[in-house]
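worker-3 :: picked Transmembrane protein 17
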Amino acid sequence: MNTKAVAIINLLVLIVPNLAEVSWVVNNTKEFKNGDTMELICTVTGECCTLSRTWNGGPSFSILMNDGVASDNTKYSEIVHSNSFSLLIHNMDKSDFLYDYRCSYGFNVSTRSILSPPVNAHLETKVQGLSIGVRSPVRLDRHKKPKSGNEYVTNLPLQMALFFNIFYAPFWLTATLVTFEVKFSYLSTLYLILLIAIYVVFTIMEVVRLYVGFVGNLAERVPELAGSWLLTVLIQLPLILLLLFNTQPLLLPFERAVHIVEALFIVFEAICGYFAIRTMVNYQVTKFHLKQFTDLENITDDEYWQDRYDYS
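worker-3 :: tokens ->
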């Protein structure tokens, strides 16, 4: 037999056992109580157990057992059968039921929580006298999740646009005043008064708009952000479009260029501002409705378990 054939056979020896599937279940032949020992059975559809065996789980999903070597001998131990291997969890408490566990055999893995499907409908676990049925993980996840922290709904594109617009606004004002001085003697009295009024109103509103928009989006304050968006849509956008498309007051090429950039800023901020306000309002409405039922941010673990379930 040549070398290539030997290599192929050795490769098949390594691959074929890994084609077997693995899955683990809870040995639910008894009712579990606080301090009991629970057995998680990992079944291998094939020969067991010549390959590496590993159990992961716990609060950090770390290695609990690797080929019979436990990370904590007082908490975990292993039993090897003909077609399966088991993880024994000693001194069970309520937190052990909330973690995910994974059994690995070679390159095959099976990951789930103790109470997630598939689970025997008759499985009833007792943790400090607390009854947890098969539907408990869904309710636990839904009510415990808000305690992990708050979601940030600040709109990043809007914040970036406002940031760069703050630096561009002084340049726009300077360029506008310079071009206005150049064409001052060529303008009629009507357009002199009109342009002066537009420049004054636009400058004042721009300072207010950029400030309240920047603060409102960064601090997630709907009133400030909504006020900035209204100033953008109702005042700044019509004024900049008037300056850009009205050619009667001798619109210079340089003046047109700076107006185009300012108009792009305003249009982009109007679009992003709309979506930012909608997202922020929806988030705060959802948060308000959640707090109608319970103060999820301040509730303690003991209060949570006592409120959600009845002690038997």
